[in-house]
Design goal:
Layout: E1 9-11, E2 29-36, E3 41-49, E4 56-65, E5 68-73, E6 98-103, E7 113-117, E8 122-126, E9 132-137, E10 143-148, E11 157-158, H1 192-197, E12 220-221, E13 232-233, H2 241-244, E14 249-250, E15 257-259, H3 273-279
Parallel strand pairs: 6-15
Antiparallel strand pairs: 1-10, 2-3, 2-11, 3-4, 4-5, 5-6, 7-8, 7-14, 8-9, 9-10, 12-13
């Protein structure tokens, strides 16, 4: 049965994949925005307090595809170059937007494509399933993150983006598969318990890379009748995406990378100190003072 995915968009503010309208996440810290239930695909985001308002905005995003992680980072820092969670007056500086990637064996997991647009103000990531993640610069030091589901995501997603299955009634799904129906679960509300459910513990954060698994996506082929040599490839679904996205450049092979098996060596200076320390396996507390917003 064909699956129509033309409106399966999720925005990090948050608008869910099945358009359960919007709800608000007023917590700072690391959260799962999108995660595939059976494939090693995931998008984690970092929220910091917005300027002059009692809410949070997105400042960082990490896209995991197999053993590889692509990071966009605009988060404010303290003097140790670590993201700040807390009162605005405790902030130290806002670094320029940084983009880099963690890989194993010097190369990306097959099937991922990373495109740049608008002079580096917008990045588009395609996964081997056709899932599209758009990360774009917005005001101040913040970013917007959009996830557009592909056919391979149908009935296989979880996180703040909810479940992509054309059923807007089950968007607030908890990790155990139950649906949150408590305070704030109405449209436009603040489902605090649901948001906290998808907070990422330090041991599961991907902003410092991931362990090696050797996973590879399934090979995809275009089959034609009465032909023996049908084209196949890991990225066959996404290989022409740069032609679809006008004005983009494929930067997959030009990004600064951290080669995880040689983490004791020199790490690119484009990588924030927090990340470089993480790669060297030093103990770093990413999130010791999470600010929980004005609503207790």
């Amino acid at each position: 049965k064909p699956i129509y995915v033309g409106t399966s968009n999720c925005l990090s503010e948050v608008y869910s994949l099945d358009y359960f309208r919007n709800y608000e996440n007023h917590f700072e810290g690391h959260f799962v925005l999108y995660k595939h239930k059976t494939l090693p695909f995931e998008v984690q985001v970092i929220y910091q307090r917005c300027y002059q308002v009692h809410g949070t905005c997105n400042c960082g995003a990490a896209v995991k595809a197999g053993d590889s992680v692509f990071v966009v980072d605009r988060c404010e820092r303290d003097i140790r170059d670590q993201p700040i969670f807390g009162r605005e007056e405790e902030r130290r500086y806002s670094p320029p937007m940084k983009t880099f990637a963690y890989v194993w064996d010097g190369e990306f997991t097959p099937g991922i494509r990373i495109l740049s647009k608008s002079g580096g103000k917008k990045y588009i990531v395609y996964l081997s399933t056709g899932t599209k993640i758009t990360i774009e610069q917005t005001y101040g030091h913040f970013i917007n993150v959009y996830v557009t589901g592909g056919a391979g995501d149908f009935d296989n997603t979880e996180g703040l983006c909810g479940t992509f299955n054309d059923n807007p009634q089950d968007e607030l799904m908890m990790r155990d598969g139950t649906i949150y129906r408590g305070p704030g679960s109405d449209r436009g509300g603040q489902p605090k318990a649901f948001s906290q459910e998808w907070r990422v513990p330090e041991s599961e954060r991907i902003f410092g890379g991931v362990s090696k698994t050797g996973w590879r996506p399934p090979m995809v082929c275009e089959c034609h009748e009465q032909e023996d040599n049908n084209p196949c490839g890991y990225d066959y679904i996404t290989e022409h995406c740069d032609q679809i996205e006008e004005g983009t450049k494929d930067i997959t092979d030009r990004l600064p990378i951290v080669n995880m098996e040689s983490f004791q060596g020199d790490v690119p200076m484009q990588v924030p100190m927090m990340m470089r320390m993480r790669v060297r396996r030093q103990a770093v507390d990413y999130n010791s003072t999470d600010w929980e917003g004005p609503i207790k």
